[in-house]
Amino acid sequence: MTKSTDKSASKTVTRRTIIKGSTGLGVMLATGVAPAIVSEVGASKMRKVQFMLPWLFVGGHTFEFAAAAVYWKKRGLDVSIQRGYGSGAAIKAVASKTVNFAEASYGVAVNAASKGLDVMAIGAKLQKSPIAISCRKDSGVKTPKDLEGKTLVGAAASGDTLMMPGFARAAGIDINKIKRNLVHPSKLISSVLNKQADCTGTYYVSNAASLASKTPAVHFMYADYGLQTLDLGLISRSDMVKNEPDLVQAMVDGAMEGLKLQMLDPEKSLDYMIAARPELKTKPRELLLIHSGNTNFLSIGPAVEKNGLGWMDEADQTRTRDVVIKYMNGKNVPAISKLFTNKFAGNIKLTAAEWAKAKALSAKFDPAKA
């Protein structure tokens, strides 16, 4: 087994020597059994880990706070969760070793890898891309073709803007007939609500939820028109995967236990997040639960039902890479094996009854039913 680089040590016992002498510790970590190291050495000796989100503290991240409070903690990890500033920033933080783990868009991660950054997907959250266009229902837009003649706002560097030409081709839209305006991200929702625009580019798990919480909306998912990618999920570096496999396993398993809770009991999962970030008490709880519900809906798919949470189907890995090459002008994109690994995914599973419950709870968040 690869030795841990944890330097939390006492004079008589260290985590390193226990790992070296205990072949069962990796199994204990993977199965969620609290290792003896936690109680014997004490909470102050827990492994400290810095984790960065891709963006703000929205409801789709409740699972990470549940993990920090319970599931990472019982695996001997003291995880500090930092807000993000975009997937690109989270990826750079991982690649520069500012943090060892983060959540980020896999499309952005693959594109970053093509530019030489060391980043690897280690466990997907979303099985379906959240990139979409969202419109007010009273705009009269019922199909993608109806976008012609309408006003669409977007943010310059957002995935929906970058891939809009591909979506237009796939959906049979004349993109030149759409009035497209670039605005600051903070103006996307207000522009539509104030009827300065009919539609906005969105991520269904965040700003689409914010729009829909204010007014009836209709959503067009890029994935439904051929631009399917694995998207938000856990990332690390190749050196962590190689040199710290036990730590990576514990991070993935703890996160996926949190995701399981978010799917089966979103209210309880949200409570963990609010306990950690009391300022969220000022946010509408209903909106945070919409974020969570939208996320849960897109986190369900055949690959994870069959193989366990976090699993990334090879076909989806390939499609994600292909989308980056075709629509994000990715050059020198590494091979799939350098971008994704299922080595740590799939340990956390749901029973048939639990999948039925998860699907029932998230059904109302289906974008096709909005």
Description:
By secondary structure, the protein is an alpha/beta fold. It folds into 2 domains: 15-128 and 230-369, D-Maltodextrin-Binding Protein, domain 2; 140-225, D-Maltodextrin-Binding Protein, domain 2, CATH 3.40.190. The chain is built from 18 helices and 10 strands. It has helices at 15-21, 25-31, 36-41, 62-71, 87-95, 106-114, 159-162, 164-171, 188-193, 207-212, 238-243, 245-264, 266-276, 285-299, 302-307, 314-327, 336-339, 352-362; strands at residues 47-52, 77-82, 101-104, 120-124, 131-136, 151-154, 179-182, 199-203, 217-221, 233-236. The protein has a 5-stranded mixed β-sheet, sandwiched between helices. The longest helix has 20 residues, at 245-264. Mean pLDDT is 88; it is low at 1-43.
Keywords:
alpha/beta; D-Maltodextrin-Binding Protein, domain 2; 13% strand
CATH class of the largest domain: Alpha Beta
Number of domains: 2
CATH homology superfamily of the largest domain:
Periplasmic binding protein-like II
Average pLDDT level: 88
Radius of gyration: 21 Å
Major sheet, described briefly?
A: 5 strands, mixed
CATH topology of the largest domain: D-Maltodextrin-Binding Protein, domain 2
Beta fraction: 5-15%
What's the helix count?
18
Structural class computed from helices and strand pairing:
alpha/beta
Q: What is the string of helix and strand elements? A: HHHEHEHEHEEEHHEHEHEEHHHHHHHH
Q: Which overall shape is indicated by the principal axes computed on the Cα atoms?
A: globular
Which parts are unreliable, with pLDDT below 50 for 5 consecutive residues or more?
Answer: 1-43
List the strand order in the largest sheet.
Answer: 2-1-3-10-4
Give me the count of strands. Answer: 10
Give the distance, in angstroms, between the N- and C-terminal Cα atoms. Answer: 50 Å
Task: Give the helix level as a range of percent.
Answer: 40-55%
CATH architecture of the largest domain: 3-Layer(aba) Sandwich
